[in-house]
Amino acid sequence: MAWLWWIGAGALLGLLEIISLDLVLIMFAGGALAGAATAGLGGPVWLQFVVAIVVAALLLFTLRPWLLRHLRARVPLAETNVAAHLGREALVVETVTEHEGRVKLAGEVWSARTEDDAPALEVGREVRVLRIDGATAVVADAPAPKRTDPGHAGPALGSTSAAS
User: Fold this and answer.
1) For domain 82-141, is the CATH number 3.40.50.170?
2) Is the pTM of this model over 0.70?
3) 20 to 30 A from 126, CA-CA: which of 8, 29, 73, 152?
4) Cα–Cα distances in Å, from 35 out to 17, 45, 47, 50, 161?
């Protein structure tokens, strides 16, 4: 009857894995199923736990890294939360100094500041997010985009301007 408890634990861990999607709890569920197999074969309780722990550890340290590597090779990693804002452009809505200010970032107004000793950034200026400190975006002046004038091609490479 002990095998039934192991199956229940494995099923519960499998369901929790669906919520977390970290590929950790499913490895523990595999260990629980190995414990159930040991119990079904009549192994003592101490052996059931040893088998469950060893199998879970093997799955966690061998199968999980392999699965993650192949999963990431197939599906690009989408940055979320703070990592998604790094490098993004924002618009200054209240002058930003090294102590205070506000920027509009991804449709939301964030508190912001510049790096130490950086010049103040005036309202309307485009800035780039360097990092997020707590709930404050640390920003710097965004480089001006390169603009080309389609009406002016400029001198061709290798041409001379001398008239003949």
Assistant:
1) no
2) no
3) 152
4) 19, 9, 8, 8, 85
